[in-house]
Design a protein that fits this description.
Elements (H helix, E strand, L loop, with lengths): L7 H24 L4 H18 L3 H7 L12 H26 L8 H78 L3 H22 L3 E3 H19 L3 E7 L7 E3 L4 H10 L8 E10 L2 E9 L11 H15 L4 E7 L2 E9 L4
Parallel strand pairs: 2-4
Antiparallel strand pairs: 1-3, 4-5, 5-7, 6-7
């Protein structure tokens, strides 16, 4: 659709731009001995006609798009011919308009005055058409730029979604392998508890697959899934594994990426609790502050234990997911302080 006719604001600005041109034509007419009534009447009607006649430049612009590699010479003949045709139409309408207005009282001399002004009107019409044609090329360039930005934005969103789906696809096998290792370790020691773990694992996987189809869930749903997982691990570790929950009620309704805390808790168990003979307590905190969700996973570690292999994978995936969704507004920090490994997450609040 025509870029000016499709936008009222643009059309209004375009017509307003003709006002100085109409005033200039009226002044030129008056300077040639025309009365102000004659000059103003003809200039106003001719300017309004030209404003809409020259909108046809858009179709020439579409038919002959600019090619930076080909230069301007290829289109110059077509532009000149179109300008001559439009200038002729504009001048012809001016002569007809002068004859029609000459029938009115006080304007009877217009038909005789228009003759000497015809060459000037023809040149002016050509120049105005070329100016409007240039405006349309500028509008076409703006539209192409906006379309390119829109397509680029869509591609960025698609790439981000694909990356997040790939990350979630990597996480699910990771959960399963760790859980199966826990069951394998328990089958020879306590088959009954191993069977109980299988039932809990089945329930956990069913819930995780259902939630995994959604890009985000309420924090309360994420924590419920986490409780199921911890119930499985507490069968294995018994009294060695304790969990302290510090969740603000208002934070439970906030939206968080699905399976966000799962890899952090797995790391806390595998590389923290499992390495300590006496076990320890995993502390999970959730709160809202200044329009942000603040999450923390904290667990004791053995300061003398060698650095585990693959400890950073879960944390790296969590960081990538948050940055993919929230960009620079997401903040992730991890480190060991006073024998405690702590991971802090902060990102904007999203309510369902």
């Amino acid at each position: 659709m025509h870029p000016l006719l499709a936008n009222r604001a643009r059309l209004g600005a375009y017509l307003l731009g003709w006002a100085p041109l109409v005033a200039l034509m009226a002044v030129l007419g008056a300077s040639q001995g025309w009365s102000w009534l004659e000059a103003a009447s003809l200039s106003l009607a001719l300017g309004l006609f030209g404003a809409f006649l020259f909108l046809t430049a858009w179709y020439l612009c579409r038919a002959l798009p600019l090619d930076p590699k080909g230069g301007l010479r290829a289109h110059a003949p077509a532009w000149i011919i179109a300008a001559m045709v439009m200038g002729g139409l504009w001048t012809g309408f001016a002569r007809f308009l002068a004859w029609a207005l000459g029938l009115l009282p006080g304007l009877h001399q217009l038909p005789t005055r228009i003759g000497p002004a015809t060459p000037v009107l023809a040149v002016m019409g050509m120049l105005l058409y070329l100016a409007v044609l240039t405006l349309h090329y500028l509008l076409a360039a703006v539209e192409r730029s906006r379309e390119s930005e829109r397509v680029e934005q869509e591609l960025r969103v698609l790439a981000r979604d694909a990356e997040l789906k790939a990350l979630r696809a990597q996480l699910n096998p990771h959960f399963l392998f760790n859980s199966l290792n826990s069951i394998s370790a328990l089958t020879t020691q306590d088959p009954a508890r191993a069977r109980e773990m299988c039932v809990l694992l089945s329930d956990f996987l069913r819930k995780s697959l259902r939630l995994g189809e959604r890009p985000s869930v309420r924090l309360s749903e994420e924590l419920d899934l986490l409780r199921n997982y911890l119930a499985i691990e507490q069968i294995r570790f018994g009294a060695r594994l304790a969990v302290a929950w510090e969740v603000a009620p208002e934070a439970e309704q906030a939206e968080v990426p699905t399976l966000l805390l799962q890899p952090l808790v797995e790391n806390a168990i595998k590389h923290g609790i499992a390495q300590l003979p006496e076990g320890g307590t995993i502390r999970l905190r959730a709160a809202l502050a200044e329009g942000r969700v603040e999450l923390r996973v904290e667990n004791p570690v053995d300061p003398d234990a060698p650095e585990p292999q693959g400890l950073g994978m879960g944390l790296r995936q969590v960081k990538q997911r948050l940055q993919g969704r929230f960009g620079t507004q997401a903040w992730v920090e991890a480190g060991i302080r006073d024998g405690q490994h702590r991971v802090d997450l902060r990102f904007p609040v999203e309510t369902p």
